[in-house]
Amino acid sequence: MPFVSIRITREGNTVEQKAQVIREVTETLQRVLGKPPHLTHIVIEEVDTDNWGYAGQTTTEFRRQAAEHKA
């Protein structure tokens, strides 16, 4: 039974977009690995950008700084 966990930042991803991701990941597992769709579980976790960090700072702060440098 495949279990796939996907974490993305919460930024207005639509129900339709997430459904497409679930569908396409399920199809890929079936096509490539022969895994039955009825046994495949996909979980999408959306994380606030204040709770996702890299390069020593939150994604919110990183993007704010990037926007300032761009302007």
How would you describe the overall organization of this protein?
- The protein has helices at residues 15-33, 59-70, and strands at 3-9, 41-47, 53-54, 57-58.
- It has 71 residues and is an alpha+beta fold.
- It has a single domain (3-70), classed as Macrophage Migration Inhibitory Factor (2-Layer Sandwich).
- It has a two-stranded parallel sheet. It has a two-stranded antiparallel sheet with strand order 3-4.
- Residues 2-57 form the 4-oxalocrotonate tautomerase-like domain.
- Its EC number is 5.3.2.-.
- It comes from Pandoraea oxalativorans.
Supply the key terms.
71 residues; alpha+beta; two-stranded antiparallel sheet; 4 strands; 44% helix; elongated; Tautomerase; EC 5.3.2.-; isomerase
- Please state the second-level CATH architecture: 2-Layer Sandwich
Name of the CATH homologous superfamily? Macrophage Migration Inhibitory Factor
CATH topology: Macrophage Migration Inhibitory Factor
Summed over residues and divided by their number, the pLDDT gives a mean of: 96
- How many E strands? 4
Number of helices: 2
Helical proportion, percent range: 40-55%
**Main β-sheet, spatial strand arrangement:** 1-2
- In what range is the share of β-strand residues? 25-35%
Cα separation of the termini: 49 Å
Looking at the structure, what is the overall shape? elongated
Classify the secondary structure makeup into a structural class: alpha+beta
Low-confidence parts, pLDDT < 50 over ≥5 residues? none
How would you spell out the order of helices and strands? EHEEEH
Radius of gyration from the alpha-carbon trace, in angstroms: 16 Å
Could you say how many structural domains there are in total? Answer: 1
- Name of the level-1 CATH class: Alpha Beta
Q: Quick one: biggest sheet?
A: 2 strands, parallel
Protein name: Tautomerase
Active site: 2
EC number: 5.3.2.-
Pfam families: Tautomerase
